[in-house]
């Protein structure tokens, strides 16, 4: 028996359609099914979506509110996306071929849709720019972090690149600014276990088998602040921020560590001073060594307060 392959409609304005499979039942009107399946959405709103052509079948045919649905049928629908806060910074494509897209992500821009951000995300913006519905991030960085993000544009070769990250054979280098402490034994290898903290937004170091390794070394300092190079081996959530905070060196302008600031209090003038600066690996398809460097920069140490 041939394996079924989903056939979603093309994205609209960079947004992919969601899919629902019709369960057993007598669904003689598509509107009745959607009003039942998504009862948290007003029936009148679903009626408007049907009228706008926002619900289609697996062949791309627009369904009407009175269309008959069948058990096991895949139905695609486009979400109603409310207005979002604009992120006033632009991403930059640094390199691309038929398999990969390498992008410089600005501070504050989420990589993928989440929470209140759907259109204002790197994935959706790139989909619009490149006219592609097959893009997927191979790895992610925090919304607050700027710098390099790699996207796969070819589903057939996606796992070959994702495996590099799973096997920890990608060399990632970050730059960060934090307070300078000359008394610490530089360079430092921080090898600890990171788990969810007391607040779901925060991570913390805990006892147990280490699951996060980061090499940290200062590159330069002005007596008060330092520019650090951080090289993580693992990819635990907030790993670099947690490790620096544990050393008593929270990153400059970090709104999560050591203390969580109120949601929505982002300051576009003072972004987190953390940059995914470079990434290198051996291409699994060509065998070539790939190295990419961000064109973004953190604040100059000379612009920060010096000791009195």
Automatic annotation (TrEMBL):
GO molecular-function terms, A-Z = catalytic activity, acting on RNA; pseudouridine synthase activity; RNA binding
The UniProt entry's GO biological process terms, in alphabetical order, are: enzyme-directed rRNA pseudouridine synthesis
Q: Give start-end ranges for the coiled-coil region(s).
A: none
PROSITE patterns per record: PSI_RLU (PS01129)
Q: Which Pfam families match?
A: PseudoU_synth_2
Domain Pseudouridine synthase RsuA/RluA-like positions: 99-246
Q: What is this protein called?
A: Pseudouridine synthase
